[in-house]
């Protein structure tokens, strides 16, 4: 429910409303605050008088953002697991362990830190009109446990991490009173140290109160709870109203419910309204046994017929109604009134025939995580505008769902999502792992049940709230415990889908399984993951997982592809959380002499990251019967070692290398898909691909025209055709439009490498849905490309003349010293470093995965270099590099002389920032040498590698711009370490 328009704040609140006086007092403003790290405040009766050590601060807010707390240091009692403990021992981190320069690399660092109790107090003035009424204190978001005293009398405690804390202060006499609040942010219940509801990994373990702080004078009989159960197909709703009364009982009276349609601009259309009134008689009296309080209760069910033209709610048309519940009752001859408001969205979410549906329409969840990352404040915003911006950014990138990882957002997030048609997966505040566990009789079991009830009561009416999980990746007797939790929670509130947890377990009780197996790269796979181990294609899907379970699968935390740190982002941190981790990585890069290349590393790694996300997303879209995915993530995760996995930074802002329009092309409601058996071809090969459509729009597409074309880098169509004309495309992703074969040989003889982009378009009226895939075509290799790499004697006498090839460094030194032009091809086992060179970027980050490969974030080179005149490349890794990177190694090039830069550089993990290369050219003695650790093995199924080798040999044979920098034999041998 929501704040009422008169009388009081009910125990639950759904949608924001302006609450007029005279029955509310806003407590925002100056309070006195005293820190109590030793826990002596209650013993010393700080609730009775404000201690001399108190300082002034402002609530709502946190004490840390206002400078209260301790300096961060080695003894800071962080909330959160530290997996990589090298910070405490590694000599590289020694400068950052000093008190004056202290900086941690594993998450954002608050300016000050405080973990413990804090006491807040102020005087309040109770108006004369409130005489005889019970007074409630409401605190919208508290971190974590709140305890309240009035005039030295203890009122009680609340400990919710997900919903407002409400304290019944009793009947306060008019006049001045001392209100004292203690907030304790220590671990009240072990929900798991990494749960984003409490952890320093993301929002930080803040202390304070944010959002709405107010006192409310309660009527004797009031609305306790309003729950709305819509029937979208029938355009009706049942409104279940629970009432509560004081010692006089609830009496008898009427409940009137009015539903008014909300326009697209958020205003209410009074002309389009529906109303119904139901009478009631109070019952169910009970003695609460608390300060002599007796309550009675009643409940009323009100049916609303909203009319055949009532708008439904979904991602395309988020039709809403503002629901007003008016109570008029008489107790012992006295009349009592109360009003509450909430939201109504005609929305049915279900699973039918193994598919997720919203209002009977097949739905595919395209989600990303929101992990409570708020660097400026360190706590979540409680205003709708802030959440509206995040949701707009997500929608611009084609997404339709936000998953709140192990936390539940404030009401404003639900309000913004309701208005935008954004689906939400909400979770309890638990990541019961890393020492915590479920189902073992610990306190967390009961806490989950409490929090679940509170979340459903508080936010359950919001149509955007479509999925609920208990939390993230549990441990313990989780399957047993969560099976009962799913069944019980669904029985209590069947208005959404339920799953045991994000991650696991996949149990029969679930409506859907949110599991990590169906994705392109799983934890621990390293260089054996699909994108690193298998030649690139666009045919992979997850049909085996779909066939193995009757429930829809929403794949868990796909992607986790990193980009290099954006050092320009450092200046954005002007609030509580400081990017000392990014500053450390900047120092490491500067020590390697590469700080001036930071922007280049960001762009190159970011383009590879985008490429990986595209294939990850399209594999899910290609899977018929799949339920969707959750990205990890669209925005960066600044904790757990610093996981820069987003195309957006921690502020939900672009990093400059991927526009939202580009992302939405492969991640939107309607996506054309090409099933390509490979990404590299030879001129003269028949290009073949199958056309598939993933369409999860507002309605089926009728009379669509589906076309294909091959386009050059200038966007000019080289070849093209029609796949289907005037075809109807139903909802779903099972539409296959057949195989297209393109005889590229009809273009005639092409003796240069080409990059052509395959473009698919779906035209319906004025709308065009398009997607594209770059492909590379190479001419047949000449004899020089087939030169073995193991012996210079095998080099044929023909062109390129004067070039010799060897795999032995001593031989290369001898030949070059004597004036030869030498290609030194290093086999992987000839290189002694431990750098895991992969095709993809780093997964999550190398520190928190305990060094899982790859350790690199792609390649960077100058696309204008003459080597690339006939090997099309944009200065970063793209699919044509897979053949050269698979089975290759990186060379440590930090021993090269000043002025000698690798022709092709590999980007190292930011934790190491080593100078890496895969191709180095230099003068040696009277000759020149090009040393490469790329995999240049030539074979018919490796056209890119064969062509690159040929171009490299031609490049060495050319007299155009020979290398200027020199390398010594010792420096050359140093590349093998």
- Main β-sheet description: 7 strands, parallel
The fraction of residues assigned to DSSP E strands is 25-35%
Q: Gyration radius, to the nearest Å?
A: 32 Å
How many separate structural domains? 4
Number of strands: 46
Q: Count of helices? A: 13
Annotated CATH homologous superfamily of the largest domain: Glycosidases
The termini sit apart by 67 Å
- The CATH topology of the largest domain is what? TIM Barrel
What's the architecture of the largest domain, going by CATH? Answer: Alpha-Beta Barrel
Overall pLDDT metric: 93
Domain Glycoside hydrolase family 2 catalytic: 349-502
InterPro entries: Galactose-bd-like_sf, GH, GH2_Domain-Containing, Glyco_hydro_2_cat
GO molecular function, one term: hydrolase activity, hydrolyzing O-glycosyl compounds
Keywords: Hydrolase
What key phrases describe this protein's structure?
46 strands, about 1000 residues, 13 helices, single chain, Immunoglobulin-like, 7-stranded parallel beta sheet, 7-stranded mixed beta sheet, Glycosyl hydrolase family 2, GH2_Domain-Containing, TIM Barrel
């Amino acid at each position: 429910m929501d704040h009422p328009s008169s009388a009081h704040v009910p125990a639950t609140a759904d949608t924001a409303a302006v609450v007029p006086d005279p029955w509310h007092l806003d407590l925002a403003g100056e309070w006195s605050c005293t820190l109590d790290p030793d826990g002596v405040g209650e013993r010393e009766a700080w609730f009775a008088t404000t201690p001399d050590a108190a300082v002034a601060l402002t609530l709502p807010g946190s004490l840390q953002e206002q400078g209260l707390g301790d300096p961060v240091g080695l003894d800071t009692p962080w909330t959160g697991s530290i997996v990589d403990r090298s910070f405490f021992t590694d000599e590289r981190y020694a400068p950052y362990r000093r008190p004056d320069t202290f900086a941690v690399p594993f998450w954002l660092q608050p300016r000050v830190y405080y973990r413990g109790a804090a006491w807040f107090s102020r005087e309040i003035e109770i108006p004369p009109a409130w005489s005889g009424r019970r007074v409630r204190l409401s605190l919208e978001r508290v971190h974590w446990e709140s305890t309240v005293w009035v005039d030295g009398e203890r009122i009680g405690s609340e400990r919710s991490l997900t919903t407002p804390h409400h304290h019944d202060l009793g009947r306060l006499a008019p006049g001045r009173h001392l209100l004292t609040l203690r907030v304790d942010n220590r671990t009240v219940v072990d929900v798991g140290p990494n749960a984003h509801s409490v952890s320093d990994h993301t929002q930080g373990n803040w202390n304070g109160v944010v959002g709405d702080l107010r006192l409310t004078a309660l009527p004797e009989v009031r609305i306790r709870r309003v729950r709305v159960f819509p029937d979208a197909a029938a355009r009706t709703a049942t409104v279940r109203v629970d009432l509560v009364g004081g010692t006089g009982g609830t009496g008898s009276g009427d409940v009137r419910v009015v539903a008014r349609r909300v326009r697209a601009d958020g205003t209410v259309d009074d002309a389009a309204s529906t109303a119904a009134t139901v009478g009631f008689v109070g019952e169910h009296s009970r003695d609460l046994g608390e300060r002599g309080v007796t309550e009675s209760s009643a409940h009323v069910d009100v049916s609303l017929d909203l009319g055949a033209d009532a708008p439904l709610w979904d991602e395309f048309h988020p039709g809403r109604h503002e629901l007003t519940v008016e109570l008029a009752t008489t107790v012992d001859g006295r009349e009592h009134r109360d009003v509450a408001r909430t939201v109504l969205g005609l929305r049915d979410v279900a699973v039918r025939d193994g598919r997720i549906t919203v209002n009977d329409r097949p739905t595919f969840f395209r989600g990303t995580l929101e992990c409570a990352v708020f660097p400026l404040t360190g706590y979540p915003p409680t205003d709708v505008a802030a959440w509206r911006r995040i949701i707009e950014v997500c929608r611009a990138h084609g997404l339709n769902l936000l998953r709140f990882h192990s936390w539940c957002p404030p009401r404003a997030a639900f309000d913004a999502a309701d208005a935008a048609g954004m689906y939400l997966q909400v979770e309890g505040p638990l990541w019961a792992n890393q020492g915590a566990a479920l189902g073992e009789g610990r306190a967390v079991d009961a806490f989950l049940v409490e929090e679940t009830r509170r979340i459903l009561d508080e936010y359950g009416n919001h149509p955007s709230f479509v999925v609920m999980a208990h939390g993230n990746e549990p441990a313990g007797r989780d399957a047993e415990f969560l099976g009962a939790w799913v069944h019980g929670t669904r029985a209590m509130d069947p208005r959404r889908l339920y799953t045991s947890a994000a991650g696991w377990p996949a149990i029969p009780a679930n409506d859907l399984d949110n599991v990590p197996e169906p994705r392109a790269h799983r934890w621990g796979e390293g260089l054996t993951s699909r994108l690193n181990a298998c030649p690139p294609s666009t045919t992979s899907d997850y049909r085996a997982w779909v066939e193995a379970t009757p429930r829809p699968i929403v794949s868990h935390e796909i992607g986790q592809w990193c980009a290099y740190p954006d050092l320009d982002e450092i200046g954005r941190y002007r609030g509580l959380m400081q990017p000392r981790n990014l500053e450390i990585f900047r120092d490491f890069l500067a020590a390697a002499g590469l700080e001036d290349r930071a922007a280049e590393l960001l762009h190159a790694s970011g383009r590879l990251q985008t490429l990986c996300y595209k294939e990850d997303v399209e594999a899910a879209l290609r899977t018929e019967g799949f339920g969707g995915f959750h990205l990890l993530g669209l925005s960066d995760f600044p904790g757990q070692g610093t996981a820069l996995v987003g195309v957006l930074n921690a502020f939900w802002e672009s990093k400059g290398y991927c526009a939202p329009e580009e992302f939405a092309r492969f991640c939107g409601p309607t996506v054309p898909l090409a099933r390509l058996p490979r990404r590299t071809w030879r001129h003269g090969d028949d290009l073949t691909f199958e056309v598939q459509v993933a369409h999860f729009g507002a309605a089926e597409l009728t009379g669509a025209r589906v076309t294909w074309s091959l386009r050059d880098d200038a966007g000019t169509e080289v070849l093209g055709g029609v796949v289907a004309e005037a075809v109807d495309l139903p909802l779903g992703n099972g539409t296959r439009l057949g195989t297209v074969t393109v005889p590229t040989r009809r273009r005639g003889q092409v003796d240069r490498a080409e990059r052509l982009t395959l473009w698919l378009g779906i035209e319906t009226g004025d709308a065009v849905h398009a997607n594209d895939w770059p492909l590379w075509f190479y001419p047949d290799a000449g004899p020089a490309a087939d030169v073995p790499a193991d012996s210079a004697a095998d080099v044929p006498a023909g062109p390129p003349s004067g070039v010799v090839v060897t795999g032995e460094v001593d031989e290369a030194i001898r030949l070059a010293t004597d004036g030869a032009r030498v290609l030194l091809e290093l086999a992987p086992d000839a290189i002694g470093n431990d750098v895991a060179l992969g095709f993809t970027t780093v997964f999550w980050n190398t520190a928190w995965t305990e060094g899982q490969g790859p350790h690199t974030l792609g390649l960077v080179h100058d696309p204008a270099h003459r080597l690339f005149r006939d090997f099309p490349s944009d200065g970063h890794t793209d699919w044509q590099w897979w053949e050269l990177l698979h089975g290759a190694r990186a060379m440590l090039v930090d021993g090269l002389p000043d002025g000698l830069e690798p022709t092709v550089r590999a980007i190292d993990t930011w934790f190491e920032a080593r100078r890496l290369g895969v191709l180095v050219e230099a003068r040696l003695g009277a000759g020149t040498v090009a040393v490469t650790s790329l995999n240049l093995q030539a074979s018919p199924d490796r056209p890119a590698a064969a062509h690159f080798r040929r171009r490299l040999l031609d490049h060495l044979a050319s007299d155009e711009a020979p290398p200027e920098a020199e390398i010594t034999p010792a420096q050359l041998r140093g590349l093998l370490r």
